[in-house]
Amino acid sequence: LDTMAQNLAQSYASTGTAPQLPTGAVALRASAGYNDFAETFSGWRNSPPDAAVLTMSRATRAGLAEFYDPNSAYGVYWILLLGS
Fold it and tell me: In what order do the strands lie in the sheet with 76-83?
């Protein structure tokens, strides 16, 4: 999941479009502009739709990735990919 999340984060940075949920994954959270994981996670936790995904009981594995592109709109792009 980490490798898939890393590829999605890089794609997100290059296209500026949040990726679609890949086949076989349970859920995906995408975020951009937060400088560190603590800020990113707080943003997800404080958003009811995102928080619901973070507590999905069928998600038993996670992949996390960050991609930095200093020439992009947001600079830092985050992907959390959940699987079962």
Answer: 27-32, 76-83, 61-68
